[in-house]
Amino acid sequence: MHLEPWQWALAAFCAVLVGMAKTGVPGLGIMVVPLMVLVVGQGRLASGTLLPLLCAADLFAVWYYRRHASVWALWRLFPWVLAGGVVGWLIMGRLSDDTFRFMIGTIVLGMIAMHLVRKRTPDVAIGPDWRRAAVFGLVAGFATTVANAAGPVMNVYLLSMALPKDQFMGTGAWYFLIVNLAKVPAYLALDEPIITWATLRVDLCVVAGVIAGALSGRWIYARIPQKGFEWIVLTLTGLGGTMLLLPKEWLTF
Questions:
Q1: pLDDT of residue 147
Q2: CA distance linking residue 48 with residue 75, whole number of Å
Q3: Which terminus of the chain is more solvent-facing, meaning fewer CB atoms within 10 Å of its CB: N or C?
Q4: What sign does the dihedral 209-214-219-224 (CA atoms) show?
């Protein structure tokens, strides 16, 4: 894999964004998905390049927020995530990148709209239930397998539970660490593996950016109040969903 200097710079920038998203600014990570496509040239290979960076950032997030996870929320979610992941793995390579992007972007924006409607309805319960976990889990499992794009889905799910921001971050940290580690053998088992020595070389060269992003994200997080945190997450998630709907050529140089 031969990268131009601007592609190396963009890869390093993506690594910083990944670190910041995991420790302080959820929703920022979805912007990395189309940017990484610019680095390596294709969606499937971008997913394979991005995954090790996500795993490295997940370790930082779990360390920072290890005492704040909602185990019950994760327990309800994981069976459905597994089912959605299996569906995504089975159809990877059968649908185009544009189809995947459009499906996930539409679902994300629909979930944001649904969340905002629920916030304006005071008599709607905010506690977790099996039906909500099933819908969000299936979509998150599918989205994370085909495009590493489950962040917006999980953000809306956790916001819908009205979690304090520490618990929001801790629950998301454990979820993504477990799911992303589980995806590594699945990516390697594809007929054309999308984690290769070439993609790992890129990861090793820019992983320092993940560390820098994780440290700066933690600094930013400590200065964001609860209400501001929720609106930042919603705004960035909506931006990420919109980016997934845009034609890929609009996001290229």
A1: 67
A2: 27
A3: C
A4: positive
Instruction: Report CA torsion sign: 68, 72, 74, 75.
Output: positive
pLDDT digits (tens, 9 = 90+) for 168-215: 899 989 988 988 898 898 888 877 888 889 999 999 999 999 999 999
d(CA 32, CA 206) in angstroms, rounded, equals 14
3-state secondary structure 90-157: HHCCCCCHHHHHHHHHHHHHHHHHHHHHHHCCCCCCCCCCHHHHHHHHHHHHHHHHHHCCCHHHHHHH
**Which amino acid is it at 45?**
L
E strands, the chain, where?
A: none
Number of residues that this document lists for the chain? 253
CA distance linking residue 243 with residue 32, whole number of Å: 10
- Neighbour-count burial for 132-141, b at 16+ CB within 10 Å, e otherwise: bbbbbbbbbb
Residues with Cβ within 8 Å of 78's Cβ and at least 6 positions away in sequence, in order, are 137, 178
Task: Render pLDDT for 20-73 as a digit per residue (tens, 0 to 9).
Answer: 989 988 877 777 877 887 888 777 788 889 999 999 999 999 999 988 888 777
Pick from 235, 251, 208: which is nearest to 25 by CA?
235
